[in-house]
Every structure is written in structure tokens, then in C-alpha cells.
Design goal:
Chain lengths: 423, 336
């Protein structure tokens, strides 16, 4: 298979200006010289993406995924290296496809289609398809500035896929649309796959990658850490997420701090027998802590995020039970959850130690460890809420238990008074 | 229907949607048959010009879009593009014709209109080009296309307004019963070409520079003001020539005017539209009539020669501007 995209020792350096001086005066004041820090968003990335392949790119926020796609699309110019492509290319980059806010959806379809290389006649021919795909029939003559972000992305995606490019680049589009639209996009992706087009997908949704991509690249701080078949790449990506395979030179937090948190681990009721725990089982989070000196005013924090990055739980910062005293030396911090009321999902755990006397944070390990909950039963949703169901016959005429039922069901926050209930 | 189709790809340009089920519809060409493009190779001048030509449809769309945006939500719409120059003309006419007697130029309004016609195109495009790349950041950051088109679209919009103003001019001249110098109209296409090429060069250059130095736009505003007064529009070149003839010490003025590419263009417009190179007026307290020269008496060929020189210079400037643009363009998406 010939390569549809050849990425050849691509590096991209951004200049992080200490302050942005963009007028002559400011440049003159600073002696014509700008102080900036070089920042390598991509370092020596090399990859061949074959024709007809669906290729995923994974990586944490800021790892350079969007930068890579922009270099492939020809929007950013690499500092060194080269990208070669075969065939036509359309890109759906983060949030919207370069629309003109003041123009109507109709005009933007023509503008965007032309930018992607379609002739006017071709756009007219596909116009109805595009509008139907985006489900924007009613709004097509409204200015896009009044579109919701979902509508905006739908329109952009609709144009990009209807251009029928040989190579389609997609950056996190699926994150914005609703479930119905996501399905539609994926259907389109599948059709493109059948037709032998090349697709490059950036996504944080590992299951999207797992289901659609043959191979996947994992980026970390601008470096390629692996290119592998999807399942293996996802494993490497998660490991990177947990900080296991972190490249050197990124000490980050806790460099010169008194307290440093080492590895964070989880252990649960099912440990040893199975990798996941069942809802309701216990969970223990342990964190290695090194302390250079005795610290008496520390407090430990633990937080749990779900796989979409939503916070599920964070410990109460004022709870005296979280206050700890650390002797000089090392130790292990334990967080015991007697019961995990979560249903299915992969969750990550963050651990921090902060100072009680001021706002300083000694160290914080963000989403370092993971645990997985698998629900053997058929309850669905997010949390485990034991529920008792009973049915009580309405006894007419007597003031029996009826009011009690009414009281228990006061879920709307209204608590009927006792006298009211008794009457 | 296309079951037996085994021929080379792209023999069937218009496949219906039913191709969904077939494994490899004909529309998708195999990679081996496609040409390979180096995405980020430094584009040299030749390919750059070619890309501009290939995207001419996009340029027209940009121009249309811009015009649409310009008059969106305005009741008078395109009427403004006639009213605006008409009002500017009225103000200058009032200022110079009534107060100062226009330096004595008869039919001063037409004289003024002829020069302003050329100047407005240049001025409009130069002013709007400074902000065009910055203003279209949304597109520049999302799609790859020859960004020079944005600068050229400002010239296109200015050219559209130019056409409208020509319409106004024709009406005014017909109303006043004036005729242009028919022979010199032959020079007009060349003058307009000069104007477009020179304006494009300036627009392409300014649009790129303003991305890096945002005060280019303010500087441009001031520079254009000075440039306007340094070009014989509200006065006649003849008055400068006679000044230099009387005071040889200001000879440098003459060179200044000769070096200004707008001078030959504006003078051709005036010569052709206004129609006269000089006028005769009764001198005060004297029965003899005095002839005042407005424009050099060079003949159709003489004006054309000047225009050819300007064209050569403008083409060189345009190519230079494209080179500068190409250098700066690489970092547009990250600077915006
Ligand atoms: N124009 C720019 N100037 C300076 N730095 C930039 C610029 N664009 C991106 N960066 C930096 O490059 C790095 C990579 O950014 P990029 O957008 O590629 O990340 P990403 O992997 O797409 O992240 P996310 O998952 O959040 O979309 C970031 O640290 C970002 O700050
Ligand atoms: Mg991104």
C-alpha cells in the first residue's frame, strides 16, 4: 500500500513570547528584540499513513495533536521536516471549519466548500445533501453567529465530508455533537472506510479510536511514544495518562517542594481475582509520600474523575479527618473508601497534599491511578443507589399510612408538616 | 449498474449515491495514480502565481462575500457606493470650486472626479488590505488556501466600487454636456491595468506586514493622506511644473512626482476624462487671454509610454510583494 500521508521528521517550534509585542513601538522599546521561549510542540515526528487506513492520534491535552493535523493540512508551517500527501485533503479542525460569523449558513457552505476546493457547480449539486446531513434546513439562511456550537460543528462536518476528499482529517469533532449526530458522523466515517479513503482521527474517546482505527499514534509532549494497533496504543496512552511513561525533563510540580508524592496505586475488594471491582466493594488508594522535613499542617485531598474528565468526587477540604502530620522521611498515604457507589466506568484518581496554614500546594498528582468498576447486574446509570420498592393498598376512609407515603415521596424538597399530613 | 466497470478510475464522474455498497467506487482514485504534493514546501514564485490563477473562482467568491457583508443590514445598500463618492466629490468641489475657485479650473468637479476615480480604487484597497488577514483569522487558522487571495479580494471590491463610480461619472458628464478626449481613452485600459497591478502589489504587501506589526494600519492611514496631497488630484500637475520652471531650486519636486506611480495613472485619467490639457482664461485687467497648462502635452503615445514604465515597475513590485508575503505567510496561523 502506498502511503497517503508521509510525515517526515516533522518538528514544530512555537515561540512563547513573554509578552506579545505586536506594535512597532513595543518592538522599538525592546530594542527590536523579542524575548521568547522556544517551545517544541512537535519533535521529530515521522509516520506513514497508508491509503485507505483509519489512523488515530491520541495524547493528553497540549501534546501536539492539533498542531500535527494543522501541519498536515498545510495551515501551520513546520520548523523542520516535511509532509507529503497524495490526493485531495479536507480537514475538520477543532470547533468549526473557518466560518464567517456574519454570513448565513448558505453562504458559508459555498465559501467553505470553495476553500476546500469544490467548484460552485459542485457545491450547488451537493447543497441539499449538506444541509440535510447537518439537519439545518430551518436555519440555513440564518447567520452562523446565531448557531449553537453543536449546529456549527455539524455544518462544518457536513461540508467537509461532502467534499469527498481522498484524505479526511478530523479533530475532536465528535465531542461536541449530540449522540444522534455522533452516530451519523461515525456512519460517514465507515462509508469513507469502505470507499478506501484515508481518515485521520484525533479523539479523547478511546472507544471511538478502538472501534474505528486500525493503527494509532500516541503523542506525549510532542514526541511520538508509540505507533501501534489501536488496542495496544490505547494501553500506552492510558499509561502515559497515569504518568508511568512520562518522558524525562517534565518534573513539573513538586520540584523543590518539601513533600513529593510518588506513585499512586489503587486496590479494591476484588484485587487479586479480577482487574475491576464490583459496585459496593471497597477501594483503597495509596500514595507514596516523601517528606524532606517534618510537616505538621498538611491536609490530604483525593479526587475521582470519570473517563470523560468530569469530576465525580473530591474530598472535603475542611474535613479534619483529612488533616495529616508527616514526619521527616517517607511513608504511604492511605485513603480507604469502604464502599464505592459507582456503576460501570473507568475512573482516575488524583491525590494531593496541601498546606493548612496557607494556600500552598505541596504536591498534586493529577489523575495518576485508575480503577475500573464493572457492574454484574443490570442496573444502569452512574451511581449505585439501593432502592426498596413496596406497594401499599390505598385504604379509603381511614387515616392510615397514606400520609406517610406522601411524606416519603417529598423529593421535590417540600416537607409537608406533620399536622398537614395528619389531617 | 457499474458492476462490470473495471476500467481505470474517474471514467464515471457522476456516480449516484448508490455506490455506498460497492467496495471501491470509481470516484476514489488510487493513491498511486494521484500526484504527490509536498504540503509545506516553500512555494516559489511560479507555482504561487499558478495557485492564484487556479483559485480565481475562490477570489470571485471572496469579493462577492465582502460586498455582501459590506451592505448587509443597510437600507440603501449599493446606493451607498454611489452616494459616498458623490458626497466626497461634493465636499471637495465646494471647498475648492466655491471658496478657492478651484485654482480657476473650469468644470472643476469633473477634473476632480477624474483623479479621485483612480485614487479611490487605490486608497480603498490599501486601507482595507491592512486588516484583511487579521479580520479573516477564522478562515486563515482553519483552512489552507493561497492567502494572497484575501489581499487581492480587497482590490476586487475596490474595483467593483470603481465601476459604480464610472457609472456616476458618465451620468454627471452627460448632464453637463461634456465629452471625454476620445483619442486618449485608448490609454485608459493600460492606465486601469497599471492601477490594478500597482494596487495589488501594495495590498499584498500591507496585508502580510500588518499581521506582524499591527500599527501598519494606522501608519498606512497617515501615509495615504500625505500621498493623496502629493498626487496631482485636487490641483493640476501643470501648476507644479510651472512652479519648478520659475524656481529651479525646487526641481526635486519634479522628481518626486515622476517617481510616484500614481502620478502618470491619475494624469492619464484626467487627460482622457477631463479632455483638455490646458484652458484659456481672460487675465485680470488685460484684454489678452492667458493659457494655463493643466497637464503635460505629450500626446497619446507619450502618456502610454509613462504607463508602460509604471506597468513594468508595478509588476516587479507585485512579484516582490508575493515573495515577501510568502516569507511571512508561514507563521500567519500561529501569529493570529
Ligand atoms: N499558535 C501557538 N503559539 C504558541 N503555542 C502554541 C500555539 N498553538 C499551540 N501551541 C502550544 O502547542 C502545544 C500543543 O498544542 P495542541 O493544540 O497541538 O495540543 P492538543 O494535543 O491538540 O491538545 P488538546 O487535546 O487540548 O486539543 C500546546 O502546549 C499549546 O500551548
Ligand atoms: Mg487539539
Amino acid at each position: 500500500m502506498p502511503a497517503a500521508i508521509e510525515i517526515d521528521h516533522l518538528s514544530k517550534q512555537f515561540r512563547l513570547y513573554n509578552e506579545k509585542f505586536s506594535s512597532l513601538k513595543e518592538r522599538a522599546i525592546h530594542g527590536g528584540k523579542l524575548t521568547y521561549e522556544p517551545f517544541w510542540a512537535l519533535r521529530d515526528v515521522t509516520a506513514d499513513i497508508s491509503e485507505g487506513e483509519t489512523y488515530g492520534i491520541l495524547g493528553r491535552n497540549g501534546s501536539g495533536k492539533s498542531t500535527l493535523l494543522k501541519c498536515v493540512a498545510g495551515i501551520l508551517k513546520p520548523t523542520s521536516g516535511e509532509v507529503r500527501i497524495r490526493g485531495s485533503l479536507a480537514a475538520m479542525l477543532e470547533l468549526g471549519a473557518g466560518f464567517q460569523q456574519e454570513l448565513s449558513g448558505r453562504d458559508n457552505i459555498y465559501l467553505n466548500g470553495s476553500l476546500l476546493g469544490l467548484s460552485r457547480a459542485e457545491i450547488s449539486r451537493r447543497f441539499d445533501d449538506i444541509v440535510a446531513f447537518a439537519e439545518l434546513e430551518q436555519f440555513i439562511d440564518n447567520q452562523v453567529k446565531y448557531y449553537s456550537s453543536g449546529m456549527y460543528v455539524r455544518l462544518g462536518f457536513a461540508v467537509a465530508v461532502n467534499v469527498e476528499p481522498d484524505i479526511l482529517l478530523v479533530d475532536e469533532v465528535l465531542a461536541v455533537g449530540d449522540a444522534a449526530f455522533q452516530r451519523k458522523c461515525l456512519d460517514h466515517v465507515r462509508r469513507f472506510q469502505r470507499e478506501g479513503r484515508t481518515i485521520v482521527v484525533v479523539s479523547h474517546a478511546t472507544d471511538v479510536i478502538r472501534q474505528n482505527c486500525e493503527r494509532c499514534m500516541v503523542l506525549s509532549h510532542g514526541n511520538v511514544i508509540t505507533v501501534d494497533e489501536a488496542g495496544e496504543a490505547i494501553r500506552v496512552f492510558l499509561a502515559d495518562l497515569l504518568g508511568v511513561g512520562k518522558p524525562e525533563g517534565d518534573g513539573g510540580e513538586g520540584g523543590g517542594n518539601v513533600i513529593a508524592i510518588g506513585s499512586v496505586r489503587t486496590e479494591h475488594g476484588g484485587s487479586g481475582t479480577r482487574p475491576h471491582l464490583y459496585p459496593g466493594e471497597s477501594l483503597t488508594v495509596t500514595a507514596e509520600v516523601d517528606s524532606l522535613a517534618e510537616v505538621r499542617d498538611a491536609a490530604a485531598t483525593v479526587a475521582i474523575h470519570d473517563d470523560s474528565g468530569e469530576l465525580v468526587f473530591a474530598s472535603d477540604p475542611d474535613d479534619p479527618a483529612t488533616f495529616i502530620e508527616l514526619p521527616q522521611g517517607g511513608g504511604v498515604l492511605h485513603f480507604d473508601f469502604p464502599e464505592v457507589p459507582l456503576l460501570d466506568g473507568t475512573y482516575s484518581v488524583s491525590v494531593g497534599v496541601r498546606s493548612l496554614s496557607d494556600t500552598a500546594i505541596y504536591d498534586w498528582k493529577d489523575q495518576e491511578a485508575q480503577f475500573e468498576v464493572a457492574n454484574p447486574g443490570r442496573t444502569t446509570g452512574r451511581v449505585r443507589m439501593p432502592v426498596d420498592v413496596s406497594f401499599r393498598v390505598r385504604s379509603t376512609g381511614t387515616t392510615g399510612e397514606v400520609p406517610v407515603v406522601g411524606r416519603d415521596l417529598g423529593t421535590d424538597g417540600r416537607e409537608p408538616s406533620v399536622s398537614e399530613a395528619a389531617s | 449498474m457499474s458492476i462490470g466497470a473495471v476500467g481505470p478510475a474517474a471514467t464515471e464522474p457522476d456516480l449516484p449515491a448508490a455506490v455506498d455498497d460497492s467496495p471501491l467506487p470509481a470516484r476514489v482514485t488510487r493513491a498511486t495514480e494521484r500526484t504527490m504534493t509536498v504540503v509545506n514546501g516553500e512555494l516559489r514564485l511560479g507555482p504561487r502565481l499558478r495557485a492564484l490563477w487556479d483559485n480565481r473562482e475562490l477570489l470571485l467568491l471572496f469579493i462577492r462575500t465582502e460586498l455582501k457583508l459590506k451592505y448587509k443590514d443597510s437600507i440603501l445598500g449599493f446606493l451607498w457606493s454611489m452616494l459616498n463618492p458623490a458626497m466626497v466629490l461634493g465636499i471637495y468641489w465646494a471647498a475648492f470650486s466655491v471658496i478657492n475657485r478651484g485654482g480657476g479650473i473650469p468644470q472643476f468637479a469633473i477634473w476632480l472626479f477624474a483623479g479621485l476615480l483612480a485614487w479611490n480604487l487605490f486608497n480603498n484597497a490599501a486601507m482595507t488590505s491592512t486588516t484583511v488577514v487579521v479580520g479573516k483569522a477564522g478562515i486563515v487558522k482553519k483552512v489552507a488556501f493561497p492567502r494572497e487571495l484575501l489581499a487581492l479580494s480587497t482590490v476586487g471590491v475596490a474595483a467593483f466600487l470603481f465601476v459604480i463610480q464610472v457609472g456616476v461619472l458618465v451620468i454627471v458628464m452627460a448632464a453637463l454636456g461634456m465629452t471625454p478626449a476620445l483619442g486618449y481613452l485608448a490609454d485608459m485600459p493600460l492606465a486601469i491595468l497599471d492601477l490594478i497591478v500597482f494596487t495589488s502589489a501594495v495590498a499584498v504587501f500591507l496585508s502580510a506586514v500588518n499581521v506582524y506589526y499591527r500599527d501598519t494600519q494606522h501608519l498606512t492611514e497617515v501615509a495615504l493622506m500625505a500621498w493623496f496631497w502629493g498626487t496631482p488630484i485636487v490641483y493640476a500637475y501643470g501648476s507644479i511644473a510651472s512652479l519648478v520652471a520659475r524656481h529651479p531650486s525646487v526641481l526635486f519636486l519634479k522628481y518626486l512626482y515622476v517617481c510616484n506611480p500614481m502620478t502618470p495613472i491619475v494624469m492619464t485619467f484626467q487627460r482622457a476624462i477631463y479632455g483638455k490639457a490646458s484652458y484659456v482664461s481672460p487675465a485680470a485687467g488685460n484684454t489678452a487671454h492667458v493659457a494655463t497648462t493643466l497637464l503635460p502635452n505629450l500626446g497619446v503615445g507619450g502618456y502610454a509610454l509613462g504607463l508602460v514604465v509604471v506597468l513594468v515597475a508595478s509588476v516587479a513590485l507585485f512579484l516582490g510583494a508575493l515573495v515577501v508575503f510568502g516569507r511571512l505567510e508561514g507563521n500567519f496561523a500561529e501569529e493570529l
